[in-house]
Automatic annotation (TrEMBL):
GO terms for molecular function: DNA binding; zinc ion binding. This is PARP-type domain-containing protein. SMART domains: zf-PARP (SM01336). Gene3D superfamilies: DnaJ domain, Zinc finger, PARP-type. It comes from Skeletonema marinoi. GO terms for cellular component: nucleus. It comes from the Eukaryota. The keyword Ribonucleoprotein does not apply. Residues 129-274 form the PARP-type domain. Keywords: Metal-binding, Nucleus, Zinc, Zinc-finger. The keyword Nucleus applies. Residues 294-308 have a biased composition (Basic residues).
């Protein structure tokens, strides 16, 4: 037992006085401030910089407790500052979440991503990426759309060439073959640009729009360097899931809300270095031709029927060693 309270979680991030939240208009802004404090602390206390690993873990666990409350919209009275009031301190801030249990479990996560990871990952106010199970089959994949655009250009070029051929009455076998293959490619590409209902998709935060867009099929998403840097052991799926869940609200969002099967689908994509952005092997391949034959994507249609009911989500806590 740690007798942890929300007041002491805030204290671990050097937030002891409610007035620091005075300028915050809502919980979102309060949470951003909490995140800023956490980042400052975690960079200063990181074991890479000679910090005490236990203290580092406590800071992280306290942040994760506060983040859970935020994600589940369970911040009392919609304000973190209420946990710093005298009465809250006296009552040990009652809550329908067992803070002590939550903190104890989070503090058992011994993975320590590098200092550089924290430096880069927590730079932005808003997490850069969102992963989710598509709830509609309407969004198109940015990468596939771009590729099908290239094919369409090739197709219209071939059509122009063939018009020219008709005008001069010279039959060119190779041009008409090029045209045929280009247009059949368009038909195939059109079917695959859409991200189907129930598929895992990844989007990035659009600062102008203030929302997530540029959706990708999971298979089309290159794992950014920032995410790669946070993986402490890419050979271990469970460890990797813990690392990715601890990036929630920092570098990515949405993973904690997904069901177990989709979480693991995401993990398996992320740990495969063939999918990493900046992978040299991949770059060499990409440079070899403008319109490449598309590798068929595996669609987990069959397994959809064996999925857990929607309500049965895996909490990040279930993954932590007891
Ligand atoms: Zn795609």
């Amino acid at each position: 037992m740690t007798n942890k309270t929300l007041t002491s979680c805030l204290g671990d991030l050097d937030i002891t006085d409610g007035t620091v939240f005075d300028a915050c208009a809502n919980t979102d802004e309060e949470f951003k401030l909490i995140k800023k404090n956490w980042r400052k602390k975690v960079l200063a206390e990181h074991p890479d910089k000679g910090g005490d690993p236990d203290k580092f873990r406590t800071t992280n666990a306290s942040f994760e407790v506060l983040r859970d409350l935020y994600q589940q919209s369970k911040v009392k009275d919609g304000t973190y500052s209420s946990y710093l009031s005298e009465s809250a301190k006296a009552e040990a801030a009652e809550s329908d979440i067992d803070i002590d249990e939550l903190f104890t479990k989070y503090s058992k996560n011994t993975n320590v991503p590098s200092w550089d990871f924290y430096e880069e990952a927590a730079e932005e106010d808003v997490p850069g990426y969102k992963v989710e199970t598509a709830r509609s089959g309407r969004a198109k994949c940015t990468v596939c759309k771009k590729n099908s655009g290239k094919v369409a250009i090739a197709d219209s070029a071939a059509a122009e060439a063939s018009t020219a051929i008709v005008a001069t009455s010279t039959a060119s076998r190779s041009s008409s073959r090029a045209k045929k293959s280009a247009s059949s490619a368009v038909v195939k590409q059109n079917d695959t640009t859409v991200i189907g209902l129930g598929e895992v998709r990844v989007g990035s935060f659009d600062k102008m729009a203030g929302s997530y867009g540029r959706w990708h099929h999971l298979e089309c998403w290159r794992v950014p360097k920032k995410v790669q840097n946070g993986l402490t052991d890419p050979s271990d799926e469970e460890s990797c899931l813990r690392d990715l869940l601890s990036m929630e609200e920092v570098l990515l969002t949405g993973l904690a809300a997904m069901d177990e099967e989709d979480q693991m689908t995401f993990v398996r994509h992320v740990i495969n270095s063939d999918h990493w952005a900046g992978n040299r092997k991949r770059k060499a391949g990409a440079a070899s031709g403008p319109v490449k034959q598309k590798v068929p994507r595996s669609r987990p249609n069959q397994s959809r029927h064996q999925k857990l009911p929607r309500g049965e989500r895996r909490s990040p806590l279930d993954l932590l060693p007891m």
